[in-house]
């Protein structure tokens, strides 16, 4: 899962990033309105943590831009501003939740997981597709009730494919979502090919009814046999 943290306070930003990365999220950051606006236009995220009080603009404008883009990611306003007007304005513009500072990281994690369940998995604790079942919070994957071992990236790739079942997923979109915008600096997509090869092998060995089909020159598609 890929999260964008829009926050200009260095200590708060550092704490949030470290805590989220410990939970195995791919985390990107923006410390200014300009950077945040650029990122939401260029990349897709599963959840955005948004500070309203940015040094060069109002975070509520980011919500307005997301609405114009018809974006599907969840948004949690994380701000010291706890005025009712700000909260109502943010929720009316499409924010999913509001978390006033200061807060415990455990509460942040709970809010993020809740938004992801509602946005991505219709509020379900488990995802079931064919004979495969995933527990997103525990990051466990079962095929016919047998636990299979995936590394972090294999799991992230599988979850991204399931979120985009029957859709054509380009190599670029997959790379950006699982590895972050640093993928732009990569010389090739060999690292993606390697992870997908291993994932496909594990799914086949365990008798999965799901198959990752390669679409030559374009990308991949997850289909159910």
TrEMBL record:
SMART domains: REC, Trans_reg_C
Residues in Response regulatory domain copies: 2-116
Keywords: DNA-binding, Phosphoprotein, Transcription, Transcription regulation, Two-component regulatory system
Domain OmpR/PhoB-type: 124-224
SUPFAM superfamilies to which the protein is assigned, alphabetical: CheY-like
GO terms under biological process: regulation of DNA-templated transcription
Feature: DNA-binding region: 124-224
Name under which the protein is recorded: DNA-binding response regulator
Modified positions (4-aspartylphosphate) in chain numbering: 51
GO cellular-component term (any): cytosol
GO MF, any single term: transcription cis-regulatory region binding
Pfam families xref list: Response_reg, Trans_reg_C
PROSITE patterns per the UniProt record, alphabetical: OMPR_PHOB (PS51755), RESPONSE_REGULATORY (PS50110)
Residues annotated as signal peptide: none
């Amino acid at each position: 899962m890929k999260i964008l943290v829009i926050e200009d306070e260095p200590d708060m930003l550092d704490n949030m990033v470290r805590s989220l990365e410990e939970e195995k999220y791919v985390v990107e950051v923006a410390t200014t309105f300009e950077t945040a606006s650029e990122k939401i236009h260029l990349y897709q995220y599963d959840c955005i943590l948004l500070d309203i009080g940015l040094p060069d603009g109002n975070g509520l404008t980011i919500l307005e831009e997301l609405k114009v883009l018809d974006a599907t990611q969840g948004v949690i306003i994380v701000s010291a501003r706890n005025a009712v007007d700000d909260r109502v304005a943010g929720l009316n513009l499409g924010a999913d939740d509001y978390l006033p500072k200061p807060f415990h990281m455990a509460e942040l994690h709970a809010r993020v997981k809740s938004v992801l369940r509602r946005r991505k998995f219709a509020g379900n604790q488990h995802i079931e597709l064919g004979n495969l079942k995933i527990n997103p919070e525990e990051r466990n994957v079962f095929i016919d009730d047998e636990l299979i071992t995936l590394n972090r990236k294999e799991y992230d790739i599988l979850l991204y494919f399931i979120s985009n079942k029957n859709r054509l997923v380009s190599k670029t979109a997959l790379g950006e979502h699982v590895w972050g915008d640093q993928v732009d600096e990569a010389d090739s997509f060999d690292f993606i090919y390697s992870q997908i090869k291993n994932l496909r092998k594990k799914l086949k060995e365990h008798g999965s009814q799901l198959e990752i089909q390669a679409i030559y020159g374009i990308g991949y598609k997850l289909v159910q046999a």
